[in-house]
Every structure is written in C-alpha cells, then in structure tokens.
Amino acid sequence: MVGVVVFGGNGCVGGAFLEQLALLQRNEGTTLSNYGINVIVCVNRGSICWEGDNVEKHDNLPIHCVKVGRKQVMKSKRLRKVLRKEEIWIVVDFSGYHKQWLVDFIELMVEEKRVIQTYVYISTDSVYEVCCDNSDGDSDDYVKEGNDRRPMDKEMRKKLARRDSYGASKWRCEHVLKSLGKEHNFPFIILRLADVIGPRDRTDRFLAYQLSALACWNMKVAFGVPNAPLATQPFRVVYSIDVGKVVASLICGDLSCNASSWENQTYNLGTREIVCVETLARELLSIVPLHFDADKHVDTTIKLERMDAMQYFPSITRRPICIERAQRDLHWEPTSFTTIIEETCKYNLQHYNEDGFMESVTELVSDLKSNPHNPLHGIKAKQLKMFIRGARKKTN
Description:
The chain is an alpha/beta fold. 41% of the residues lie in helices and 15% in strands. Strands 3-2-1-4-5-6-10 form a 7-stranded parallel β-sheet, with helices on both faces. Helix 3 (99-111) links the parallel strand 4 and strand 5 (115-124). The radius of gyration is 22 Å and the shape is globular.
C-alpha cells in the first residue's frame, strides 16, 4: 500500500483533483485501497476562500489534514508522524512556488527513510516567458515542451526573470525536481498548465470578466477589452476539472498502469481551441442573457470597445502552447472552451454568497474606479450585486 501527499488541495486545481478521487470511489463503488492507496495527506495552511476549498468535506476519502506552510515543513512533527504511516508515497504538488520548498520536503523524506514512488509537479506555461523563444529550432506556431532552455547570457536571464518572476520561480522548481529525482532515484512528471479557468479560482481573473459581461448586458454599455495587440493575442486556457482528472488517472487510473510512457517527462495542458480576450468576451456576452431568460435570443447589441482596460488574460506573451504530446501520451481530451465558460459561470453564480465571490466583486469595483475610460467606471458594488442576484435566480 502507498500514501499520497498533496501539497495544496484546497484551491482551484487541487480541489478538482480531490473531487475526482471522490467521484472515482462513488461512481465505481470501490475504495482507493483497491488502487493500493491507503491514506491521503493534504498539506496546506488551511485557508478557505470558497466553500469547496475545505478538503475535509470529502468524508469518503481517507484524508489527513496537516495545516502547515511550506516554509515550516521540515519542522512539522505532525507531518513526520503521518508520513510514518506508509513507507512509499506518491507526491502531488500544487503549491510548489519556490525551489527550496521542494528541497526541504525531499530532504525530510530522506531523513524519515520514506520512498517517493512518483512526484507529480504542477507547473505553468509561464516558464516559457523566461526561456529562449524557439530554443529547439522549431518554427511552428506553438510552444513545445522543448522550448524551455534559459538564455546563456546572465543579464538576459535576469531581465526575463524580472519580467515574469512567477515563471522564473516555477522553472527553478522544475530544474531542482529533475536534479533531485536523478539523485534520489525517483520518477516525476511535470504538467505545465495554460491559464486556468474553473470553480474556486482565487485569481479573480475570470470572475472579473464574467461580472463585467453581466454589468454590460444589464446597463447596455460596451464591454471594454485591452487595446491591440493584447485584445487579439492568441492563447489557450485549461479547465481545472480536466487537470484534476488527468492527475487522478496518473496515480490510480488508466495512466498509472502505463507509467513508463510518461515518467520523467514534461507536458503542456490546455484546450484544443486557441482563443483571445475578444473571443472570451464574446462568449461571456452570449451566455449572460441565458442567465435571465432561457428562451431569449443572444443579445448582439453589446459591442466590444478597445481601451486601456485591465488585462486579466492572458498571463503570457509568447505563442500558445502545443498539447500534442499530452494528447498522445496522457490521452488528453480537454473540455470544449464553450462548455468551460458555461460551467464556470454557472458555478460562480450558484456560489454568490461565498467569501471568494464577494471579495471578487469588491476588487472589480475598485479596478473600475481606477479606469475612467471604461464604460463601467463608477459602478457601485450594490448595483453589481443586484445584477448578480437577478442572474442567480434564473440559474437556480
């Protein structure tokens, strides 16, 4: 039997992963012990922004919660005690943002004489922002996994790291994981995610656009999108639930039986569709009327207006990622872009009263106050909440 250590698990992608494990048990009428898994240890700070962030709601899963920050992992007596329950562990890391965090945990495992069966590391397509463009000589329109080499010039590396510190940090984590995997003889897999959309998103990016579309439709004003070229810059997104499914399959599904095909490999994950901010805005504006009257035809009177608007998407400046390798090795079958938008909008409206939603409302109103050129400039939180309540009645 093995245990599973989950770093995170109380957010957008980590929560989706745990939900997939719970669904696996319910749908197949089995338990994780049938897949050789005896215990799941969720390591996080215990912060809850959305109702679904609470990992303890999965009462059908053998979960132990260890509330500790990544910086304190080495000092956590409780974590050490729980790890002694099993000799062999699968690690699923949703929150590894600094390389030292990975080093500390792997050192802890070595000290406790525990074995890492597989390390699943959740990374980002932002790593390409700090790498050489087209570094593998590829002239395609997409960024492949091999385009991940840093520039030789030290000053250029610093410049790129300053431009995207998140991408630089995740790249360093990937690099140290590969090195430690080789040193301690454990396999790993790295999943580089496009911009994530889905339930319980704490970045507020998607919700800001959804709320803007809702307000624009009610007030009959234009939807503000960034000026060119940002408005039409192509990118992919990824559905948090799709990521949860593939990670679950890696540790106890079909993919777990064919680990030799993906061990020590890196994969880009994103939708089949390549979109832009204008595509996202139009999709949202086509959905909003349905929140109020399911029989109403899509209102095409709301126009897009380019301006110095807040840029929530994309988080990258490079070309869209290529997902062919994931489709081949991981049987990656992403949900359609339209369905992702529909389902995420529905979830958000159904959870209108939660702290995560209301914080997003306040933040959006603040952003709009700072942009006098936006048609929604000056909108009040009370007014926006009224629009939300109207949409929520039809959604329920």
